[in-house]
Structures are given as structure tokens and as C-alpha cells.
Design a protein that fits this description.
The complex is a heterotrimer of chains A (about 70), B (about 400) and C (about 375).
Chain A (H helix, E strand, L loop, with lengths): L1 H21 L3 H22 L7 H8 L1 H6 L2
Helix pairs in contact in A: 1-2
Chain B lengths: L1 H17 L11 E11 L5 E8 L20 E8 L2 H9 L5 E3 L5 E5 H6 L2 H9 L8 E5 L3 H5 L9 H10 L8 H8 L7 E9 L16 E12 L2 E6 L1 H11 L6 E5 L7 E17 L4 E16 L8 H30 L6 H8 L1 H7 L3 H7 L1 E10 L15
Parallel strand pairs in B: 1-4, 1-5, 5-6, 6-7, 12-13
Antiparallel strand pairs in B: 1-2, 2-3, 7-8, 8-9, 10-11, 11-12
Chain C lengths: L8 H16 L3 H9 L3 H24 L6 H9 L1 H33 L6 H17 L2 H25 L17 H15 L18 H32 L5 H8 L1 E2 L3 E2 L2 H31 L8 H14 L3 H21 L1 H13 L7
Antiparallel strand pairs in C: 1-2
Helix pairs in contact in C: 1-7, 1-9, 1-11, 2-3, 2-8, 2-9, 3-8, 3-9, 3-14, 4-5, 5-6, 5-11, 5-12, 5-13, 6-11, 6-12, 7-11, 8-13, 9-10, 10-11, 11-12
The chains are: A mainly alpha (about 70), B alpha/beta (about 400), C mainly alpha (about 375).
Chain lengths: ~70, ~400, ~375
Amino acid sequence: MVLVFIIVSIAIILLEAPGLVKKKMWRELAAFLAYLSLGMALVIPQALGVKLPNPTKAIEALFRPLAELLK
Amino acid sequence: MLKKIAFFLLLALLTGILSGCWSRKEISEIAIVLGTGVDLTEDGRIRLTVQIARPTAFVGGGEAGAVGTEAPASWVVSAEGRTVEEAERYLAMKVPRELYWGHNVILVIGEEMAKKGTRMVTNFFQRERQPRENAWLMVTKGEAKDFLETYSDLAKTSAQAAGFLTRMKTCYAVQLREFAEMLASKGVQPTATRVEAKKAGITPGPGQEKVFTAHKQVELTGAAVFKEDKLIGWLDAYQTRGLLWLKGEAMKGAVIVPSPAEPDKNVSIRILRGSTKVVPEYDGENLRFNVIIKVEGNMVDQQSREDLARPEKIKALKEAVAEAIRQRTAVALEKAQGEYGVDIFGFGEAFHRKYKKAWRELKDRWDEEFTRAEVNVTVDVRIREIGLLTRRASTEEK
Amino acid sequence: MLEKGKIDSNQAVMLMVSLVLPTAILFVPAIIVKHARQDAWLAAIVALLGGLLIARLVVSLSLRFPEKTLFEYAQTILGKVPGKLVGLLYIWWFLYTGALIMDEFASFLCTAIMPETPPVVLFLVGIAVAAYAVRNGLEVLSRYNQLLLPILLGLLVITFLLVTKDMKAERLLPVFDQSAPAILKGAAVPLSWLGEIVLFAMIIPFLQKPREAHRVAALATLFTGLFFAICTVVTLSVFGPNLAAHWVFPVYNTVRVVSIANFLERLDIIIVAVWVFGGFAKMGVFYYAAVLGSAQWLGLKDYRPLVAPVGLLLIGLALLCDNIVDLLDFAARAWPPYALIVFEVGMPLFLMIVALVRGKGESNA
């Protein structure tokens, strides 16, 4: 699974990055890399079996009083 | 160049993903379950019995094929477990194919299992994705295993025979989803088809009387009455008619009434269609149900010699039919209110529809209220046709 | 302008229907029946009225800035930093909702037809297709939707007609059995779905005739709300209020019930198709909004480089969901206040008030 995600990421870089470099769209490249690393940071640990905190729980905690009404 | 490499990488990945269906099941690798039976064993475990179609018997032209040379069409096998799923897994160790529930026609529950509680059984068949909520639910006297082990002379398998009998609504029929709906409602107690395996008919042939003796076949014999999910009693075929009338289910069958002028001879009226309306009346204390049954039928049989093709006779017949139907409902009501003390007719739901507020107070002790309720049955009969004859063949003048 | 394509009003209506409907008929009918029982259809109508108000609010707000999307005018109204903050919230909302939608569909597929397929495979394949559509822009997404939505809804309507045999009107009675609070509770969930029309604020600048936006939003909401109400009524009249609330995917079970003459039956796969294609459209719109919003938020000249990374991010977020019980519980309880208060009503209302006070934008909308 990890391998699949790494291959996917490499493929994405190979597809998008060269064009951006050629057109000198540095800002876009930076954003691209930032989003990609964010995505990798979420995907790779999970593929390795690390449990990450679930944002659903945070939202639930935040809206608990109101959510109780909808029981 | 880089793009090409990237494309190649993605393509390689796609071949892995798209090369075939992940959860594929070849038809030659599945065992098609036609009927399922669940029994309670003596040590309190669940025994799951399945009737599996033998594919070779289904090859070739439909119902054709000489009797005697035909291979058996089904294979019946059972396994035990604490839950239905556990039993199913043990079954998987005996059946050399993967069990497929999608074509399961009937779910038969053995008497002991039904007494213990049907929820232990039905939950699996609702939760699992393969069994369908349209399967017919029935309760058998005795063991479901014995019931499934019979075979049918006209249908390929006994499960299909039972499925056909229920689908034709020859008697009270209920689908798994309808049963579950009754189970989840406070306004009605569940009822299910009652089935038995009984000897019926023979398959004659020259010199074959010894070979083909009458064997047990499936038969619908009435209804099973539940309180919550537990079996508490039975209705026979006659009482089940009353149940059908009061529930307003699709009605087939005949009403037999005495001939107006010759009460010792009978006249048969075959029912075409009917409808039932339940109107509750409640003043805070007294509970009354006015049941208005409308029925339409044709005369099909006459034993007496009087001429019935006359308006006044038809009028008398109508009254007799109404009385006969009232009697049937009275018998079913007597059973439900007196002997079993449960509302199997769904009067509670009718009450809920009319008296929303009162229902909130009564719903938790509905069965008690129901047993105290007064039920008035009004029958409105219409006899439309009298068949091809006006009167019976007779030498008499009149 | 980041998006060069333009879509006409019909496409926009259909896109907005796809924005809400596919998941609304997945498990919302069960939730609404649980609260409002026989009066579920009433709750659906209440939700529809609320949805129309939300649509009105969002379009009024957007039309004050006809050339701008939510991300751009938030900054115009509130100033740079607070505006950016609002933008960040919405990026989160689009992303995470997109991931949840994917989760919902994966749960459905795994439950109903492909139990052995790991969800991540469904995510990968799904995202790959959606990414392709999003990368090609709004026009492609709209046309895909324009092509399929009528077929899908038509199929659904046909199956509903086929199931009429098993319906009983008595199951819908008595009317007004539940108290008003229960009906309102029931309405909250579908309302939070209909409120997703907020996303229309990302699309309005790309309409050929932005002045028709009010009509588009109202039509889409009306259609979605009514269709949802019909689904609820059909489910209720087939299973009754007790059983309908027990199913996880009630509409799926309703379709399974269809059996005409022991011959026309097992139509489940129709609804699977409806949900797979509809799910793509719905997820695609959120995906598109997340990508476009991010690009505008970061001030990029092109949004396309972000498509693939955001896809990966969506998969990552979707993987966070542990099980369907969490998902159901979230959808039934935490999601309505979370979506309604913050994103669907609260924020647009706040922006509107500030815009009015500060006199920003055109007032002739």
C-alpha cells in the first residue's frame, strides 16, 4: 500500500512539476509541493498502520451540546 | 520524457486495479441456496439447514424429463453453531462451493426455534446483503430440517414449491420484511405462515406402485401466532381465513353456505376480491372496533336442487355468505382475544391512525386493551356470476 | 480569472442537484424517519423551505459581487486577514466534506456489493476519475453531470413506480403524530444537506447569465427537496415508520423489494449505478470547489497543478474514518449543527450583514 502511494506521488510530481518549472510558475510549484507533502503526510502513516486523530471526533466534541439535541 | 514515465507508472498501477473484479464470484463456484431452515437443537444451539440447488438437475428443458431418470434437484445439508453466522461458517466447511443467499426463496423456522425467539434468526437475514427481504417466512410444526428434506413432484425443489404456494397467497403468506415490520410495531403482533410436510398424492405408473409410494410434500396449513418474537400458538386453515379477513390481506378461496331452502345441502361461493376496513371507536374507556368487510364472489357449486338463479335466492345467499364470514372472523377473534391474548390483526395500528393521543397511553399495554375490545363485523356481500348453469340437472318440474 | 469555462443555467441547476441529492438519499431518509416517523415527509418539506431561504441568502450575497467567488469577496468584505481566515475554513469544509462523501459511498459499496474490496481501492479509483474531470474544468464536470443526472433520476423514478405495488398509504398515517420539536429535529438533517447549496457561491461567477442565479438556486433546491421528500414517502410507505428507520440505506432496500410477477426483480444494481455516478458528481463538485478555492486563496494563476495533490489529500482524509457507525453518528448528530451554524447559515449571514453595514458590493441584486 505504501508503495502504491509512493508511486502515485512520484507520478504526480513527474506529471505536473516539469511544466511548472518550464513556465517558471514558482508560486504554483510551491503550492503544489506544499499540498502534496500534506497529502503524503496524511496518507503514508496511515498506509503504515499508524492511527491518526480523526477530525470527526474534534467536530463532535465542539458541537456536543447541539448534537445531543439530535439524539 | 518525464511525462511518458509518469504515464507509464500510472498505467502500471491501473492494470493492477482494473484487471478484474475484486469480489467476483463465478457461477460455477457458488452454491445457490434455495431454502433455509433454522432449528434449535436440544442443547440450545442453532442448526442451520440449507437446501442447495444441484446445478446439473437444472440443465436442459425446464420441467421436462422423464420421472425416475431425473437426478435429484437439491441437496440438503445442515450445520450447528451458537449464531446463524457460526453455523453458516461450519456449513462452509462442508459445502465445496461458496454459499450464495441471493436466491433464497423461503426461510423456515422450526417450532422450537420459534418458541425461543425469531429475532435470533431474522437479524442475520436482514443484515446480510445477499438474502433478500422478499423471502417468505414460515414456521413449521416440528423441525425445519425435516421440512426441507422433502421433495416436490411438480416443482423442482420443495423450497420452490413452498415459495410458489405462498406467492399464490393460497393461505396466509408473509415476507421477511413484513414480518420484521410487524415485529417492530406495537400495534400488531407478528404472524407467519404455518407449514408442514405431509404425504400427498402418488405418482402412478404401470408396475411402479411399489417404486413411487406417496412421499411427504410441503403444505400450507395455517398461521403461526407470535407474541413479540416468540411463537405462542397456531391457527388452523379455517381460523386463518378469519385472520386474513380481519387483516384485509388478499383473499382467495371459497365460502360454503347452506342452500336457502334446503339447509342440509351446500352452495359454494368462490371469492373474487374483498376489502376490509377497520374503524375504531374509543371514548376514553370503551374500545370498539367496527370491521366492515366487502366481498365479491361467484357461485361455483350447488348441491341442492332448488333454483338459485332468482333475485330473492341470491339475496338469501348473500346473507348466508355474510354470516359464514362473520363466523370465520369470530373464530379467529376468539383465538386471538381469548386463547392467545395478542392483537394479530393490526387493530392497534388502525387505532393509532385514528386516536393519536390515546395511543400514546395505550400502546404499552395494547394487547390487554385489545382483549377487552368489542368487535363488530359487518359484511357486505355481492354475488356477481353464477357460472354456466342456472340450475342443477333434474327431472323435476320446478 | 482562474476558470475560463462558462456553464449555462440548465447545467448549473443540474450540477446543484447533484451537489446535494446523491448522498441525501443514501441514509438521510432513515435519520429523518427516526425522528419524525410518519411525519418524515413533513419534515422534508420544512427542510425544503429552509433550504430555499439558505439558497436565497447565498445568492443574494454572491450577486453583490457578480465577478467574484466566495474566497475573493470574503476578503473584500472583511479585509485581507479575516477574509483569508474565512477562506481557510471553507477550504477545510470543502475538503473534509468531499472526503466524507467518498467515505459514505465506499461504505455503501462495501456493504451492498463489494464486501471484500478494501475502501482504499475504491478511493484511489474514484479520485482518479474525479481528478480527471476536475482538471478539465467546470465545463467538463457539468457536461458529465448533464449527461448522466437525467438518466439516473429517471431510473430511480421508474423503480419507484415499480414498487408502488408494495406501498400502503396507511403506513403514512396518522399525520402530525409527532410533536413539532421532533419534526424540526428530523428536518435539521436534510436541511444541512440542502444547505450545501452554499457551494454555489463558487460557481456563480462562471454562469453565462449570473442574473439567473436566484432562479437556478431556487429551482435546484426545490427539485432536490421534493425528490428527497418523494424518496422518504416511498420508503415509508413500503416499510412503515418502524422498519424504515432501521435500515442503513433505506432507499436501497426499497428498490430491492421490487418484484413484478417474479420476473422483474433484483433491481439493486440500478441504485448502485445511481449512487456511483451521482457520487462522482457530488464529490467532483466539492473537489472542484476545494481546488479552486485553494488556488484563489493562495493567489495562484492556475488551479490545475493542485488537482492531483488535493486528490491525495482527500484520500488521506477519507482514510481517517474508522467505521460506518462513526460516520452515521456524525452525519446524524454532529454534522447538522457543524455545517448549518458555521458554513451554511452562519458565515454567509455574517458576511451579508457586514457587507450591508460597510456598503460593499452592488446593492441592486
